[in-house]
Amino acid sequence: MAPVNRHPLHGNGVHAAGPGFAPLNSPRSAEMQEITRTSKGLKEFLWNLEGLGRGSLLDLGPVWQTTLSFFIERGFRVTAEDLLGAWKDFSGEEEKHLQAASGGPLDTAVDRTPEGRAVRFLEGNLRYPAASFDAVLMWDLLDYLEPPLARRVVSVVSEAVRPGGVVFAMFHSRKPATFHRYRVADSMTLQMLPAAEFVPAQRVYQNREIQDLFGQYRSMKSLVSRDQFREVLFIK
């Protein structure tokens, strides 16, 4: 099983780069040509966090110095877990193990359904105590996860969010032509960094499906932009 890509990031910004992570000052980061977009969802997300004081935030994307500094300067303790990177690593390693065990006892014992994969993946990822975080940056990762795993991820993340906490998620209105990673530039601006699509898009969620996924939250605010993104805030 792939190791957990999880790093608590404190005020000094020091971390150990793991599988699926881009080191904070790597040449790969510098070479990427980002696209800048205004994000009303990010503005609303930050507005809901005003007055919180020293809160805790979970970023489910790769570590970026700009995002890290932005939230640390506002008093947040940031934990980063690159869930798509972890899913890619897990899927590759499991495929190797299943191929090696083909025809043997392990081959018949393993549940190869999407539900079975979801259960095994979450045995080693997103392992947080209940009510650990005030805020979560989920980005667009649900579009890239198999639906059974997406449902379980929402459930596990929701358990880790404190009452009154806020989740910021993004959804594509059509299958994306380009895979992006995201980082926070300022309180209203996101930088979208094109990257090789190592996890193919799985689903385009309709508004009702999104509401069903996050049914345990007390409020939801959806902001649709012209660039085929739906930004959604969920308040627990």
Please give a structural write-up:
The two termini are 32 Å apart. The longest helix is centred in the middle third of the chain and has 18 residues, at 83-100. The protein has a single domain (34-235), classed as Rossmann fold (3-Layer(aba) Sandwich), CATH 3.40.50.150. It has helices at residues 27-31, 40-49, 65-72, 83-100, 105-109, 114-122, 147-160, 207-213, and strands at 6-9, 35-38, 56-59, 77-81, 133-139, 161-172, 179-186, 189-195, 219-224, 229-235. Strands 1-4-3-5-6-10-9 form a 7-stranded mixed β-sheet. It has a 3-stranded antiparallel β-sheet with strand order 2-8-7. Residues 1-5 and 10-31 have low confidence and may be disordered. It is an alpha/beta fold and 236 residues long. It has 8 helices and 10 strands.
Structural class: alpha/beta
CATH topology: Rossmann fold
Order of helices and strands: EHEHEHEHHHEHEEEHEE
Euclidean distance between termini CA atoms: 32 Å
Radius of gyration: 18 Å
The unreliable regions are: 1-5, 10-31
Number of strands: 10
Gross morphology is globular
Oligomer: single chain
CATH superfamily: Vaccinia Virus protein VP39
Keywords:
236 residues, alpha/beta, Rossmann fold, seven-stranded mixed β-sheet, three-stranded antiparallel β-sheet, 8 helices, 27% strand, disordered N terminus
